[in-house]
Amino acid sequence: MKLVRFVLAVAAPALAVAPALADFNDKNPVTATVTGAKPVAVANFAAGAIAGANPMALGPYAVKLAVGGFVLPFFFLFNPGLNMQGGLVDVLTALFFGAAMVTFASFALHGLLGLRTIAWPLRLVLCACTIATIVPRIELQAGAAVLGALVLLGVRRLAKPAPPVPRGGT
Predict the structure, then answer these.
(1) Mean pLDDT in the chain?
(2) Same domain, 42 and 124
(3) Degrees (nearest 5) of the Cα angle 114, 150, 155?
(4) pLDDT one-digit tens code per residue, 125-155
(5) Most CB contacts within 10 A, which of 31, 36, 37, 49?
(6) Which of 113, 109, 110 is nearest to 150 (CA)?
(7) CA distances from residue 54 to 6, 19, 44, 146 in whole angstroms, order as listed
(8) What's CA 129's distance to the chain center, in Å?
């Protein structure tokens, strides 16, 4: 039951990101962020109440879960195949590289592949692969996808599993 409450608590702020980013308002510069959107953290406090956890502690987990929603709009902008524009090959290529981009961004931000910890230099390589897959040049996207896949395969084969977390405690 605790796990279900925690997952709901973390997912609620992640689902609230889209309306927060859609509310652009430059009239209030004190509360405006870099993008001009008002910061909305009400969902984080609702999630904290559901889980019985500190809302401020849930924020980083919500960002980690929503990383695909943060990077995918840039992919939409530069790769029209994901919007079903172009032929079947364009659409399938964009779908493949979009999935690779979200995968690399998620692993780079989370830092774990199963029970294996991804070292910081490899996480930076995955970040670079994420950015490179956004660029609409097929040779760059393919190279980034291959490099990112090799990094993930190397971590899967060579990294030692992280020690298990004790149950019921910290």
Answers:
(1) 79
(2) no
(3) 35
(4) 999 999 999 999 999 999 999 999 999 999 9
(5) 37
(6) 113
(7) 11, 23, 9, 40
(8) 13
Entry field: residues in the chain: 170
Same domain, 82 and 133: yes
Instruction: Answer with the one of 65, 88, 113 that is the final residue of a domain.
Output: 65
145 φ/ψ angles, rounded to the nearest 5 degrees:
-65, -40
- Which of 11, 45, 65 marks a domain boundary? 65
Which tokens go with 158? 């060579």
- Domain coverage including residue 22: 1-65
- For residues 72 and 99, is the Cβ–Cβ distance under 8 A? no
Q: Tell whether pTM > 0.90.
A: no
Q: What is the pLDDT of residues 26-44, one digit of tens each?
A: 444 444 444 444 455 577 7
What is the distance between the alpha carbons of residues 87 and 79, in angstroms, rounded to a whole number? 13
Q: Which residues of 75-85 are buried (b: 16+ CB within 10 A; e: fewer)?
A: beeebebbeee
What six digits make up the tokens of 144?
Answer: 């980034």
Chain centroid to Cα 10, Å, comes to 13
Domain total in the chain: 2
**51 and 6 both lie in a single domain:** yes
